[in-house]
Specification:
It contains one helix and eight strands. The protein is mainly beta. The chain has a single domain (about 25-165), classed as Porin, CATH 2.40.160. It starts with a helix and ends with a strand.
């Protein structure tokens, strides 16, 4: 009876441990990033950019949803653009330092300012690194993201951002 009790106890602990481990993955995270964007829209220049992003890791891939805003002083006036988009990112190393490459698409829409400016589909590519400490739930990240805007990519941005995630 003692041996049967030990076998049943070990089986229950093992089943509970595997259920706990599967419940921990994937762990979504949220980040807030900000930085500078070089733009070529209606004229060229630099302007502040910020975004809130949600990340869902799936093995070596990360699915990212983002809502960004760019404030640009263009030739025809100052405009603010909103940029909702999604990206699929390949996380090269799944350790403390996590470099990644990503591709995605979304929409580049004028939110305020003088009429004109693009309201168009956008395609983007990113390269960055996330640094996080396990079990703390806090991290930092840096990224370069380039974006082609509209048909034939008549407009574009190159964005350098830093951010915090949790």
């Amino acid at each position: 009876m003692n041996r049967a009790f030990m076998v049943v106890t070990a089986a229950l602990i093992s089943a509970g441990a595997s259920r706990t481990a599967s419940a921990q993955l994937p762990i979504p995270s949220v980040s807030i990033v900000g930085g500078v964007a070089q733009f070529d829209i209606s004229g060229t220049g630099t302007g502040p950019i910020g975004a809130i992003r949600a990340h869902l890791p799936l093995a070596m891939l990360v699915v990212e949803g983002s809502l960004g805003a760019l404030h640009a002083k263009e030739d025809n006036g100052t405009r603010t653009y909103v940029i909702p988009e999604g990206q699929l990112q390949w996380q090269i190393l799944p350790f403390l330092v996590k470099p990644y490459l990503g591709v995605g698409g979304g929409w580049f829409r004028r939110l305020s300012g003088d009429p004109g400016g693009p309201n168009a589909v956008t395609l983007s590519a990113s390269a960055g690194v996330r640094l996080g400490i396990p079990l703390v739930g806090f991290g930092v990240q840096g990224e370069l993201r380039v974006r082609g805007i509209g048909t034939g990519f008549g407009s574009s941005t190159a964005e350098s951002t830093l951010g915090l995630s949790w």
